[in-house]
Amino acid sequence: MKKHIFPIGLVLIFAIELAVLIAFAIQDSDNLQDAVAINEAVQSVQMDWNMIEHHTNQTALDYVVLDNNGAVLFKTKDGLSESLNAAIIHQDTILDIKIAAATDRTAAGKIIIYSHSAQLFQKQKQTAVIIFSAAIFVQCCICICYSIYLNHTIIKPFSKLKNFARRVAGGNLDIPLEMDRQNLFGSFTESFDLMRTELKKARIAEAEADASKKELVAKLSHDIKTPVASIKAASELGNALTDSEKLKENYMQIIHKADQINTLITNLFTATLEDLKQLSVTPADMESTELKSLLENSDYLHLAAIPDIPVCLLYADKLRLQQVFDNIFANSYKYAHTNIDLRIYRNSTHLMVDIEDYGGGVNKSELPFLKDKFKRGSHTDDIEGAGLGLYISDYFMKKMRGILTIQNGCNGLIATVSIPLSGAI
Amino acid sequence: MKETLIKTEKLSKSFSNGGVMQHVLKNIDLQLYKGDFTVIMGASGAGKSTLLYTLSGMDTPSLGTITYGGRAISDLSPDELAIFRRSACGFVFQQIYLIDGMSVMDNILSAGFLVSRDKKALIRHARELCKAVDISEETQKKFPSQISGGEAQRAGIVRALINSPEILFADEPTGALNSKTGLDVLDTLTKFNEQGQSVVMVTHDMRSARRGNRILYLKDGVILGECDLGKYVHGHRARHEKLSAFLTEMGW
């Protein structure tokens, strides 16, 4: 019913307008003179003819009495037609006054009964204008309300969905899709968020698998390196003890191959650390004012007030910068869940965005390692996370020739995102 | 200590081309000083002319501020900006844009009438300027089609100076002239600069650039470097070598 209230309101107003129009169309013309009152006025004038100056109007009509020369003998008020010509133009009723004393009953004068049809028509016109103006005003209000309603229920959710899809495409799965189940697409969009949580789970599982693979590789490499070292040591000993040139050559061959195996194992171990470097970062010029929407997108719980942003041209990858902010805000939500202070300022080469929460910060000894791969703070055990967010954010900022610094502030952790100014570096 | 005429802070200018933003000037922090002959150099498309037009109020910046004598011209309305341009700036372009149907003197005076109604004073000033740039009284009465390119450009300079602007902006003033007439125009600009006129000139011609005492090199919308050449001295070899070395360093 709530969804149909606006169309119903509009139809109702149209119906009222139509009804008023029909009422006007079928309304009887009410400008006919009252014949009885006219007769009464004529009679009273005829009776008082000889003392017309003492005549009093006993009807609701307005009239003027003229003699045969057109001179005004009596009038009920000013502003009436006071000549036959004026009376004809105004469509007034003109009647003869006949006196009983006269033998031939010829007219002694004229009575002009004033017609109120013009005032009546004017009044009707005003009523019609007022009714239609009110109807149009109400219709406009309904249309505006309906537009706001449509914006709120359709356009805004789709806009959120667009930003959400962009973030998911960029690999950021931390920020949920804010949706009202009551709106038109609530249940439809909920499935998108479900997809995000599933993707996130898959990513965490993948990260865990990666981590365990790394551990396996590290363990295997250690396991392999140990016997290889023994083989090498035994070969070196054999080489030292034997006098046979042929055997020495064979031992050297074994030592050389053991070294080769050692190098290959080391390469295998380091290769797993390099795989994240596949993420592409393509910085371009962007106006600093665009940061506002990036910060608003990231701060979906509205815990921060965005200050004035110094105007300048930045050099950054908007998508990656959004991921950096998303990650910092998501971390603050997860570990501190307090209000967030934002400070934005500029020097000659960078625009700095300080993001500080009130969570008390982290142990000083952990600060240098927070941006390392798979490293997390000591009080994060019961909160899900892969320990990759800050590592990736730091990687993105370096690729943009920017800097990400993490430090303890007065209230909590301060993440400072330093974005390079275009042309400055 | 030089007096600052124009100061910019994080000046940026962007254009939308088919929905794609092109950032032509990027975060330019610059000060132009009174009495300087500043030359802006750079490759084609570096943003030289855009910088000149933005500094002079012919165009508005997309971001950042421009202050002239402590007043932010980037915040002025179009009408206020027009008044600022008429009274404080003179312009000399590659194309001279003299009005064909008016004599040389009338062309000069038409610019003066935009600011002053004192006809006698204007004519007196115009004649002084014409004399200074070697435009004879006979030439003053001629129409643009009857005079040479060099004379037309010198008339253009007089027209730019008729309102005694604080700063003269010149965009490739010798670009459409041959070598000899170009030299005359440069001599004219140098002469006015020696008398205290501040000049900002855009050029990609090294011979023109030598006239400046301060050279700015623009690349991809950013001031890559600047060179202080000192006062212009005709035929000074060390000056020429310094400029050549600077431009080589800038990758010109």
Summarize the structure.
The complex is a heterodimer of chains A (425) and B (252). With 425 residues, chain A is an alpha+beta fold.
The helix content of chain A, as a percent range, equals: 40-55%
Query: What gyration radius of chain B follows from the Cα positions, in whole Å?
Result: 18 Å
Overall morphology of chain A: rod-shaped
Q: Using DSSP, what is the number of strands of chain B?
A: 10
* Rounded average pLDDT of chain A: 82
| Proportion of beta-strand residues of chain B | 25-35%
Summarize this structure as a short list of keywords or feature phrases.
heterodimer; A: 425 residues; alpha+beta; Heat Shock Protein 90; B: 252 residues; alpha/beta; Rossmann fold; 6-stranded mixed beta sheet; 4-stranded antiparallel beta sheet; 9 helices; 10 strands
Please provide a written account of the structure.
Chain A has 9 helices and 10 strands. Chain A is α+β, with helices and mostly antiparallel strands and 425 residues long. In chain A, the strands form 3 sheets. Chain A has a 4-stranded antiparallel beta sheet with strand order 2-1-4-3. In chain A, strands 7-8-10-9 form a 4-stranded antiparallel beta sheet. In chain A, a hairpin with a 4-residue loop joins strand 9 and strand 10 (413-420). Chain B is of the alpha/beta class and 252 residues long. Chain B has a single domain (40-56, 78-250), classed as 3-Layer(aba) Sandwich (Rossmann fold). Chain B has helices spanning 48-55, 78-88, 104-113, 119-132, 137-141, 149-161, 179-194, 206-209, 237-250, and strands at residues 4-17, 20-33, 37-42, 63-68, 71-72, 89-92, 167-171, 198-202, 214-219, 222-228. In chain B, the strands form 2 sheets. Chain B has a 6-stranded mixed beta sheet with strand order 6-7-8-3-9-10, with helices on both faces. Chain B has a 4-stranded antiparallel beta sheet with strand order 2-1-4-5, with helices on one face. In chain B, helix 3 packs across helix 4 (119-132), helix 3 packs parallel to helix 6 and helix 6 (149-161) runs parallel beside helix 7. The longest helix of chain B is centred in the last third of the chain and has 16 residues, at 179-194. The mean pLDDT of chain B is 90. The interface between A and B is medium-sized, with 13 and 14 residues.
